[in-house]
Design goal:
Elements: H1 2-14, E1 21-24, E2 27-30, E3 32-35, E4 38-50, E5 54-64, H2 80-84, H3 87-95, E6 100-106, H4 112-122, H5 129-143, E7 152-157, E8 162-166, E9 173-175, H6 178-188, H7 195-211
Antiparallel strand pairs: 1-2, 3-4, 4-5, 5-6, 6-7, 7-8, 8-9
Helix pairs in contact: 3-6, 4-5
InterPro entries: Chalcone_isomerase (IPR016087), Chalcone_isomerase_3-sand (IPR016088), Chalcone_isomerase_bundle_sf (IPR016089), Chalcone_isomerase_sf (IPR036298)
Keywords: Signal
Pfam families: Chalcone
């Protein structure tokens, strides 16, 4: 009975993540995940570098299934190069009323305090001091033991508080809803912390829309 229960649990968990993957700078990202009560499809992404040379993590953005032919349909049919240069597209992704999940997969081991502080600094011009501290505290509570190479860090945006989790799609902490907008602007705004991740998302969306 214990074996059967474990098997059923493993099967249920496996069903939350697609077995097919796409590589983003050497890290494997599932084609889709089940998050926020919906299936979300991978667009694309890239790597966040420190000082422009040291790889920290690869980043991928997931959006609710059907968005490419729904809320963002007016951008379908455009090439990735066009979308990458079109801030209106990125603003539509940031502001769109659909579910989004950011997945960070680390290229190397980093201390939890360093990760929390670095992400807090990235959001410092987009959130008030109180919200920033709340976000850092919630994030550190999840990664207090640090991250290793391959660790997955999820930020789930579903219209309410932002779910934060490590190596699981079950939220282990909640951050204020305004954090979602700040995170998306950090990666897809006019001055992204990773131009590669922003461009990769646009190219990935173009491919996703073409296949829809």
């Amino acid at each position: 009975m214990r074996y059967l229960a474990a098997l059923l649990l493993a099967t249920a968990n496996a069903a939350d993540v697609c077995s097919n993957t796409q590589a983003i700078d050497g890290q494997q990202f599932p084609d889709w995940i089940k998050s926020g009560g919906s299936t979300r499809q991978l667009t694309g992404g890239g790597t966040r570098y420190k000082y422009g040379v040291a790889k920290v993590y690869a980043l991928g953005l997931y959006i609710d299934e059907g968005v490419a032919t729904g809320a963002l349909s007016k951008f379908a049919g455009k090439e990735g190069k066009q979308l990458a240069a079109d801030q209106k597209f990125h603003d539509a992704v940031i502001q769109g009323k659909f579910g989004k999940t950011l997945l960070l997969q680390f290229h190397r081991a980093v201390g939890g305090e360093k990760v929390a502080e670095a992400l807090k600094d990235s959001l410092s011009d987009k959130l008030d001091a109180k919200t920033l501290e709340a976000f850092k505290d919630k994030l550190f509570g999840v990664i207090s033991n640090g991250v290793n190479k391959g660790t997955k860090l999820y930020f789930e945006c579903s219209g309410g508080d932002v779910g934060i989790s490590v190596d699981s799609l079950k939220a282990q902490a909640k951050a204020p809803a305004t954090v979602c907008d700040a995170l998306l602007k950090t990666y897809y705004g006019k001055a992204p912390v990773s131009a590669q991740a922003k461009e990769g998302m646009a190219h990935g969306f173009a491919a996703l829309a073409a296949a829809a």
